[in-house]
Amino acid sequence: MFSYRHGYHAGNHADVLKHLCQMLLLNKLAEKDKAFVYIDTHSGAGIYDLTSAQAQKTGEYKDGIDRLLDADCQDPNIRTYLKLVDDYRKFNRYPGSPELARTLTRSQDSLQLMEWHNNEVQNLRGNFKGVSNAHIHHRNGFEGLVAMSPPKPARGLVLIDPSYEVESDYQDVVTSVTQAHKRWKTGVFAIWYPLLAKRRDRSERMLKALSSISGTDVVDIQLKLLPQDQEVGMYGSGMVVINPPWQFDQQLNALLPELVTALKDWPDASHSLTWLARSE
Prior knowledge:
Blueprint (H helix, E strand, L loop, with lengths): L12 H17 L7 E4 L6 E3 L3 H6 L6 H6 L5 H14 L3 E3 L1 H8 L5 E5 L3 H10 L6 E4 L3 H8 L7 E5 L7 H16 L4 E9 L3 H12 L6 E7 L9 E9 L5 H16 L6 E8 L3
Parallel strand pairs: 1-4, 1-6, 4-5, 6-7
Antiparallel strand pairs: 2-3, 7-9, 8-9, 8-10
Helix pairs in contact: 1-5, 1-10, 7-8, 8-9
């Protein structure tokens, strides 16, 4: 858990999917004047330098955000996301989920940012110095989510994106979300996960457990950009959202075909949006 640093992966195709979903969800919450809370369980540093040794070692951003910036995408939500990101990319930076949340929230909204890695939480504090509505917590995000539920105000979004380098992360997601949902049934829970050939059974079990939470709508979005081969590693990623807002699925269905076209190398790259549970 303490070895993972997101700087190696900032701006990759998984970040693109995750942050597009995050933007759509936050914008939906902001349509009403009422305040809301944003909870990030695995915040990382908040902002990433793409000239750093970490980013340059992998170069994953080149096949993610840079490829999307170079594409002539017409979907209005993709274009909105790219406009947000380009303000950072022109200075060789990429905004992580806490920074995107900062740009998309208002003064009445609250940001609760958790990070357990000692170095990363210091970077996060430095990047968010002076942001009055951001509260940074050096704690385990799974434990912190349960402890913070239900938050005040009770409108809000939780973003959960652990590294999944530790096998227990899959079960920790299920346990923490199940417990938090019992206390906070109206919260929107967005969980990112990797698509890994060697761990496909773990993600499938996690999705099945999350879709079994009583009285919820659950939608699953997947982006598959490489062959599902044991040697590939991460061939794509997914976002499962509990209590998605109205029309969120329609917005994604509109942008996913263009997103796959912009990011794919593999001719059989694909996308899917599947309702795992409906409360009605």
